[in-house]
Write a structure and sequence with these properties.
The strands form five sheets. Strands 1, 4, 6, 7, 18, 19, 20 and 21 form an eight-stranded mixed β-sheet that branches. Strands 8, 9, 10, 11, 12 and 13 form a six-stranded mixed β-sheet that branches. Strands 14-17-15-16 form a four-stranded antiparallel β-sheet, with helices on both faces. The chain is built from 16 helices and 22 strands. 45% of the residues are buried. By secondary structure, it is α+β, with helices and mostly antiparallel strands. A hairpin with a 4-residue loop joins β19 and β20. The protein starts with a strand and ends with a strand. The model has no long low-confidence stretch (mean pLDDT 96). α1 packs antiparallel against α6 and α3 runs antiparallel to α4. The chain is globular. The chain folds into two domains: 403 residues, no CATH class; 64 residues, 2-Layer Sandwich (Dna Ligase, domain 1). 36% of the residues lie in helices and 25% in strands. Bound molecules: adenosine-5'-diphosphate (ADP) and magnesium ion (MG). Adenosine-5'-diphosphate (ADP) binds next to β7 and β15. Magnesium ion binds next to loops.
Length: 480
């Protein structure tokens, strides 16, 4: 893999390195670039979030392309989410075997069939993830599209100032100009506020649906604190699905209430994985929210549009025409897709994909319908996993061409990590945030909202920051 280099000369001598790391860690903790510890959990403390000491090189042309694409992707995903026939066809095989997607889909169908449930607008706070594909002209390719609980807008907004601080400490203040400004937090929050304004219920709150224990607390509280600071009349409350089941009800016109508080916007930071629904109660809570007239972020339609199966279906030739009319937009989106294949056993496409992956597994990633990291199967592990699956089970997975990003060098700083840290080989994944509001007739709000960069060891398959193998970072733009 080609080597990208670094934004300043490496290695940094040990004395300077230790000094700047010590300052950077404190900077991170004191500005909330932080998380609760999993190993040593306490609600009363946070640790700095794993980070890369200096920003990582990213091609300016590709960064700007991803930014330009975001409103187009917002538009695409909005129409996908509102195309009932497309979702039914695309997910038909998946929901036969994948219980989680089936549960979501059942709510979707039940609401469609329910005449008392009026169509409301939906709010999408999305994140489109990319890696630079070094084997194809250093162009970005989409890894996935997140439509639920797109995280790290809050903490990532701290990385421009953190990396500016580190560069300045090392006497490279002149390089700060290559760090793009990041309005991710403001962008997502203003999306929520716009939804709240559209609802026009002066005493209503925004409900954050959360897990029982939140490790990534700063990232969520930043949203809450931003809203209260900039829009002091708007209250945010946090509840788990279990609490919502106990405390929420619908009024005569399907108004959502939690105890006595009217809710006009619901923002899900949980609900994207089976573990968030320990019993039928949590599914009932999700249904209740969906049936309400509150604006959901995401609605079930948006949630389903973000499944990996839908991503794969959108990459089929000619499909984008169903959702977008402008050929330039269609071409721009087609260019960011890598090979994506169905694993259905009853189609030629699925059979071909099976042959391809068994012949050359190193070129692929196998993905189930899950979010949140740690679920995919990579390269040489794929054949064994496939052999253990029935043909029906296989159809709930998709096959994706592996992206091979260029390698950069850097120092990964993590709590209780080695001191001084070694200079290691890294690869990065760029996320671009977007916000959209609309219903089946029209889009009324569509914005690009900043970015995040996540960087992991070149050798590890996945780079989950909360999971412990990746670190937060920011892009250092260069012209290639
Ligand atoms: P999740 O919903 O679990 O986040 P992703 O599709 O984002 O699923 O995959 C998780 C991680 O796996 C990504 O962040 C990336 O590091 C790696 N990954 C996923 N798809 C590919 C791919 N096609 N090529 C290389 N790495 C990939
Ligand atoms: Mg992901």
């Amino acid at each position: 893999m080609p080597d990208l280099g670094s934004c300043i000369p490496f290695p940094i001598d040990e004395e300077t390195l230790n000094e700047v790391i010590s300052k950077a860690k404190d900077w991170a903790i004191m500005h909330g670039a932080a998380m609760r510890s999993k190993a040593d959990f306490s609600e009363d403390s946070v640790q700095f979030a794993p980070f890369i000491l200096l920003p990582t090189l990213f091609p300016r042309r590709e960064f700007e392309k991803a930014v330009r694409l975001q409103p187009i992707l917002n538009e695409l995903m909005h129409w996908v989410a509102h195309d009932t026939e497309f979702l039914r066809e695309t997910l038909a095989n998946t929901i036969k075997v994948d219980e989680f997607t089936r549960n979501l889909f059942n709510i979707y169908e039940k609401i469609l069939a329910d005449e008392s449930a009026q169509e409301t607008r939906s709010l999408g706070l999305f994140r489109s993830d990319y890696m630079v594909h070094s084997l194809e002209l250093n162009e970005i390719k989409q890894v996935e599209f997140n439509t639920i609980a797109s995280s790290f807008a809050g903490i990532s907004s701290k990385f421009h100032p953190l990396h500016s601080f580190v560069l300045s400490e090392l006497n490279y203040a002149d390089k700060v100009k290559n760090l793009p400004l990041n309005g991710a937090l403001a962008g997502l929050c203003e999306g929520m506020v716009e939804a709240w304004n559209l609802q026009a219920i002066s005493n209503a709150a925004i409900l954050f649906v959360v897990e029982g224990v939140t490790y990534n607390i700063c990232d969520q509280r930043f949203h809450e604190f931003y809203i209260r600071e900039k829009h002091p009349h708007i209250k945010v409350i946090r509840k788990t699905l279990t609490e919502i089941h106990q405390q929420a009800s619908l009024g005569p016109n399907n108004e959502l209430k939690v105890n006595d508080t009217v809710i006009s916007v619901v923002y899900f930071r949980a609900g994207y994985e089976p573990g968030h629904y320990p019993s039928q109660n949590e599914w009932d809570a999700r249904y209740l929210i969906e049936k309400s007239v509150a604006i959901k972020c995401p609605s079930i339609g948006y949630h389903l549009a973000g499944t990996k199966k839908v991503q794969q279906a959108l990459a089929k030739p000619g499909i984008l025409k169903r959702f977008l009319t402008d050929d330039i937009k269609i071409k721009a989106i087609t260019d960011i897709f890598t090979g994506l294949y169905s694993m259905d056993s009853n189609t030629d496409e699925g059979q071909n994909a099976l042959r391809m992956v068994l012949t050359d597994p190193a070129k692929y990633v196998l993905k189930p319908q899950r979010e949140g990291g740690g679920n995919n199967v990579y390269g040489h592990d794929i054949p064994d996993v496939l052999r253990k699956m029935s043909e029906v089970e296989r159809s709930a997975w998709i096959l994706m061409e592996r992206i091979f990003p260029p390698i950069s060098k850097g120092y990964m700083i993590r709590p209780s990590g080695p001191s001084p840290p070694p200079l290691v080989d890294l690869v990065s994944e760029l996320g671009i945030f977007g916000a959209v509001i609309g219903d089946k007739k029209a889009i009324v709000y569509n914005a690009h909202c900043g970015h995040m960069l996540r960087t992991k060891l070149e050798k590890s398959n996945e780079g989950g920051v909360a999971a412990g193998s990746g670190a937060l970072d920011s892009p250092y733009l260069y012209d290639d």
